[in-house]
Design goal:
The complex is a heterodimer of chains A (552) and B (523). Chain A is mostly helical and 552 residues long. Chain A has helices spanning 3-15, 19-22, 30-52, 55-82, 102-122, 150-157, 165-178, 185-203, 210-242, 247-255, 272-290, 298-305, 308-333, 338-361, 366-385, 390-416, 433-436, 438-452, 458-472, 476-502, 517-535, 538-546, and strands at 91-93, 98-100, 417-419, 422-423, 511-512. In chain A, β1 (91-93) and β2 (98-100) form a beta hairpin. In chain A, α5 runs antiparallel to α7 and α19 packs antiparallel against α20. Chain B is built from 21 helices and two strands. The termini of chain B are far apart. Classes of the chains: A mainly alpha (552), B mainly alpha (523). Chain B: Its EC number is 1.6.5.11. Chain B: GO terms for molecular function: oxidoreductase activity.
């Protein structure tokens, strides 16, 4: 097949007996796709709400809609799991585009719960002082108004609020639901964009420090666009290599179990250079989303600049979704290549753990500190990813669930500590917080201890799970380095606790705002999950263990 | 199912801690009484454990076993041997005295908001430490032990960093800085040790497949579980490192003088007399049982480090100008003796070491608590600020002397018996080490007596001329402990009876027999 083969791409399609008759209507398993469909539907309705519902009622309408959608989607996930998806059977829905298996459902459930908790912090309206008689949230009065301009003042005076954040959140969640479940590379890419674009927007919407927020959004967007381009380029090369976008087919080509060569790609197919470069680019894009070194540069700036509720949501949910996608790529698409990617991931994990922990020591802003801490945690999770065993998968799933609730709780606490300029994120302002408001400081200390991986917190269970999986997977040196960087990381978590409890409060220090039940719920859920997963993790370990098998 | 005595013994102070912390801010005194009552009730339970324990019976008694985290192979397994029983009794005994001695140490200052409740926090944290220490003595599951071994750092950290001496020779601001430095140093040292141990704990799981001390030890003994020599050594080092930090052994000891110097005297007693014992106890229970071959392999190095601890700690104690730091270095020297006794691998050495843990707890408590009373009266920790105290406060000086004499192992007081046993046990196997270690006793006489001489004798310094003698509360703290020191010095049999069978078993774990006397061997 040389000269004719090239044309066969078109000719075979044309000479097929009855082209129109052969185009089957795609078969969509609505039941299996219900979680995603519910969220996307609600997001679309949310946009209509923005267009047609009076301004006064929008907040409540959007809140109601989002909460109902998230709960309904979670119920759908639970129903699917109860129906045996993930444990006894698994499905590939929407013509091979979406996998419905254990890891997908577990991660989707986690993302939905995190989003629900995150939504509560989005909707908080008691923290900022009332602006001209109307309660406001953390988001800009009018996103389109130039910071400091007259139109912005008008918008503030009129009491505008950006209720668009709710549908934006739902769109991001929809992308996140698909991201770890995507079963072909195009779906993966679409999901990546669907989850990223709303986040870029949300980052720019801070009510206070708007320029910083916009700067963060631009940085995130530019670097994110680069990462997306890498991903897309990688996808193209992988298609050239395997002649298919489908995970399963690519894996078969990698394994060498597919002898039939697509004629059009005869020259490139099976070319290892394409495979290696393509998968490297693809994984790079995912590592960017995960925040692993050396693709972590955006994390501190974006975490610091974005409105804190968005930071919390992004830090928790994006990480879950991106690690889910990374796991699926590495375990489903590229298991045949593991002797090539494992050394690379080893290096990435080591650098990520150490760099995150070491650089965090020098931080003076609480949000930047948490950003570097999230980088270090990405390294710990990568240690579990490298295990390439079912235990590795389930340990990563468990870690993600544990970590995301700690993160969202910690950022929710950050929203409470305020001074005249909004949130007081500089660490020096946190001095003596334990004397002023022992309860808030104690709750934050619980989260910090969980980050540090002190026993009886979820952080310890998670760390133990991934390190155990890594050790069993033959990565003992990685465990030792992980343990060392945990010790380094413990230093800066402890430093914050020292600051809160043992330093004298500053006379002009920040006050702790009394939040509405919304933020209280978010923090309460965070603490509860942290303690429960620390003291009695067995049920959730079981859950993650059952969910530890990918469909192919 | 029988009554879970061990769980209740550990859980009671934990519940008491929560209850104490919940007492409203205005009811400070109620919180103190509540904490004291809980600690006394815990003591009663510990005595029950002591009585129910049969020295001639099974190795681990009063056992409890429940499934906990099956995925990690972790079980909630408790059980006590003679060594653990003795140390639980010591812990439960000392806590009421610590609480009583610290009765006013955490009264809130004038400044501070109405919601700030340091008193409740102080006593709740002490009870929390007690609960965690007791459960780490009871745990026969390595993972369970590890969790509480690590978790106990948190309340201790707050005790060191949050509460210091009322009066400080350098003013409150410096004191706060030094306190916070001491607390962070304490935490980082111990956390680093603990995390290294975590790597070894994970390694042990990968090798053994579960965490049960009894199962692993049995499998090791019967040869079912074969460990590569290098694996065993690495795991041993991981465990030993954590315990050596906690104990503390030279050169990992530097956190102790800071921590003991900056914390209040009762907390210093809590650290050195109670918490550090977990380190030496764990060497006996985990290092020797799980890794017998590696323990023997490491013995020479450990013994040398122990001797260095003994001599170096004593020398530094001689040079101290600060009373509390002096006692801290003296403790480092004593921990050297304990570790030497453990790794001498003779039955005298190990029962001496166990006895030493108990006696050192009591004698240091006496010395340190009285030093605390002294320091709070004068508002300074410097030896040079005192002089002639015995003329104005004879009872204080007298009991301080008894505590000091106990520290230098005067015959007739409890520590003598244990120090003698340790030295004899070491000498029979390692004569040179034994001889060098004996120098530690000479130095102990030097630092204790010089301390006494400088603070208590000589002309009365004007600042101490109005110093009141021990008050009733302080006498209640000191008198029973002094009586116990004398009693155990004359009649140590009750403790040795409990300890000895457990020591014999540990000895058989490491396949060591006592060396025979040469005369007999020559026959």
């Amino acid at each position: 097949m040389s000269a004719t083969a090239v044309h066969s791409l078109w000719t075979t399609a044309a000479t097929a007996a009855d082209p129109i008759g052969r185009i089957d209507a795609p078969k969509i398993e609505y039941g299996q796709l219900a979680p995603t469909l519910i969220i996307i539907g609600a997001a679309v309705v949310g946009i209509l709400v923005e267009a047609f519902v009076p301004r006064r009622a929008r907040y409540y309408a959007q809140m109601f809609l989002s909460v109902v959608a998230l709960i309904a989607a979670f119920a759908a996930v639970v129903a699917l799991a109860a129906g045996g998806y993930g444990t006894t059977k698994a499905g590939i829905a929407a013509m091979g585009a979406i996998a419905v298996d254990g890891p997908a459902l577990f991660l989707q459930g986690t993302i939905l719960l995190v989003a629900l908790v995150g939504l509560f912090t989005f909707a908080e309206r008691r923290l900022d002082p009332e602006a001209h008689g109307s309660r406001v949230d953390s988001f800009a009065a009018q996103a389109a108004a130039v910071p400091g301009s007259e139109s912005e003042q008008k918008a503030v005076k009129a009491g505008f609020t950006t209720t668009e954040v709710f549908p934006l959140l739902l769109f991001a969640v929809a992308g996140m639901l698909v991201f770890p479940a995507a079963n072909d590379l195009l779906t993966l890419f679409v999901a990546l964009e669907v989850l990223s674009l709303p986040l870029y927007l949300l980052c720019a919407l801070a009510r206070r420090k708007r320029l910083m927020s916009q700067e963060a959004a631009v940085k995130y967007f530019l670097l994110g666009a680069f990462a997306s381009a890498f991903t897309l380029f990688g996808i193209a090369l992988l298609y050239g290599y395997a002649g298919s976008m489908s995970y399963g087919t690519i894996a078969q080509v990698v394994d060498g179990t597919v002898p039939t060569v697509t004629p059009a790609l005869a020259d490139t197919m099976g070319n290892d250079a394409l495979l290696l470069v393509g998968s490297a680019l693809l994984v790079m894009g995912l590592l960017f989303k995960v925040g692993a070194v050396p693709f972590h540069m955006w994390t501190p700036d974006v975490y610091q600049g974005a409105p804190t509720p968005v930071t919390g949501f992004m830090a928790a949910a994006t990480k879950v979704a991106a690690f889910g996608a990374l796991l699926r790529i590495l375990y489903v698409v590229l298991p045949g290549l593991r002797w090539d990617w494992r050394p690379v991931m080893w290096a990435v994990a080591i650098v990520t753990m150490l760099a995150g922990a070491i650089v965090a020591i020098t931080q003076t802003d609480i949000k930047r500190l948490l950003a570097y801490s999230s980088i270090a945690h990405a390294g710990f999770i990568l240690a579990g990813v490298i295990a390439t065993t079912p235990e590795g998968i389930s340990s990563v799933l468990f870690y993600l669930a544990a970590y995301s609730f700690v993160t969202i709780g910690a950022f929710a606490v950050v929203t409470l500590v305020r001074d005249a300029g909004g949130e007081a994120t500089h660490l020096s302002k946190w001095a003596g917080l334990g004397r002023r408001s022992p309860l808030v400081a104690a709750v934050f200390a619980v989260f910090l201890l969980a980050f540090a991986g002190i026993p009886l917190t979820s952080g310890f269970s998670g760390k133990f799970a991934v390190f155990k999986a890594a050790a069993e997977g033959g990565a003992a040196p990685l465990v030792v380095i992980g343990v060392i960087s945990s010790a380094i990381a413990a230093f800066f978590y402890i430093r914050v606790i020292v600051l809160m409890f043992f330093s004298e409060p500053r006379p002009e220090g920040p006050t702790v705002a009394v939040p509405s039940p919304l933020t209280m719920t978010a923090i309460g859920v965070g603490v509860a999950v942290t303690v429960v997963l620390g003291v009695a993790p067995q049920y959730f370990l079981d859950l993650a263990g059952q969910a530890g098998v990918f469909v192919r | 199912m029988s009554f879970p005595l061990l769980t209740v013994t550990a859980a009671l102070p934990a519940v008491g801690a929560i209850a104490t912390a919940a007492v409203p801010a205005a009811r400070r005194t109620a919180a103190k009484w509540l904490a004291l009552l809980v600690s006394l009730a815990t003591l009663a339970l510990a005595v029950t454990v002591l009585v129910r324990f049969d020295p001639g019976g099974d190795r681990y008694q009063l056992t409890e076993s429940h499934s906990w985290i099956a995925d990690f192979g972790v079980r909630y397994e408790l059980g006590v041997d003679g060594i653990a029983v003795a140390l639980i009794a010591l812990t439960a005994l000392l806590i009421p005295f610590i609480i009583l001695a610290g009765w006013h140490d955490a009264d809130p200052l004038e400044t501070g908001s109405s919601r700030w409740r340091p008193t409740q926090g102080f006593f709740a944290l002490i009870l929390a430490v007690e609960a965690m220490v007791i459960i780490s003595f009871e745990a026969t599951d390595v993972f369970l032990f590890y969790i509480f071994f690590e978790a106990m750092l948190i309340p201790l950290y707050f005790l060191i960093g949050g509460f210091g001496d009322r009066a400080h020779q350098h003013g409150e601001k410096t004191a706060a800085t030094q306190r916070s430095y001491a607390a962070v140093k304490f935490l980082l040292y111990n956390l680093a040790g603990g995390l290294i141990m975590l790597a070894a704990v994970i390694g042990l799981y990968v090798v053994a497949g579960n965490f049960s001390l009894t199962e692993i030890a049995q499998a090791r003994a019967s040869g079912e579980l074969d460990m590569a020599t290098s694996t065993e050594r690495w795991l041993f080092l991981g465990f030993f490192f954590a315990f050596a930090v906690k104990a503390p052994l030279f050169p990992l000891h530097t956190w102790l003088p800071n921590a003991m110097g900056e914390s209040t005297a009762p907390v210093a007693v809590l650290i050195t007399a109670v918490v550090d014992k977990v380190g030496t106890f764990a060497m006996l229970r985990f290092c020797l049982q799980l890794f017998p071959e590696a323990s023997k392999w490491a013995t020479p190095v450990v013994l040398v480090l122990a001797v260095v601890s003994i001599i170096y700690g004593a020398l530094l104690a001689v040079g101290q100008r600060d009373i509390k730091r002096l006692i801290a270095y003296a403790s480092i020297s004593h921990f050297g003796f304990i570790i030497m006794g453990i790794f001498a691998m003779t039955s005298q050495g190990q029962s001496g070491a166990t006895l030493y843990m108990v006696n050192h707890g009591i004698s240091t408590a006496v010395l340190m608590l009285i030093a605390g009373f002294l320091i709070s009266r004068r508002g300074s920790r410097l030896i040079a600020d005192f002089g002639g105290v015995q003329k104005v406060a004879p009872v204080l000086a007298g009991t301080f002397l008894i505590g000091g004499l106990a520290t230098l192992s005067l015959p007739g007081l409890a520590p003598f018996v244990s120090e003698f046993l340790v030295l004899v046990g070491t000498f029979t196997r390692y004569p040179v080490i034994g001889i060098i270690a004996t120098l530690g006793i000479v130095l102990a006489a030097l630092y204790t007596l010089v301390l006494y001489q400088r603070t208590m004798t000589g002309p009365v310094k004007p600042e101490v001329s109005a110093m009141p003698d021990l008050r009733v509360r302080e006498l209640v703290v000191v008198a029973p402990l002094v009586a116990l020191l004398i009693f155990l010095g004359v009649f140590p049999k009750p403790v040795t009876d409990i300890v000895n069978p457990a020591v014999e078993q540990t000895m058989s774990d490491v396949h060591k027999k006592d060396p025979q006397p040469e005369v007999e061997a020559a026959k």
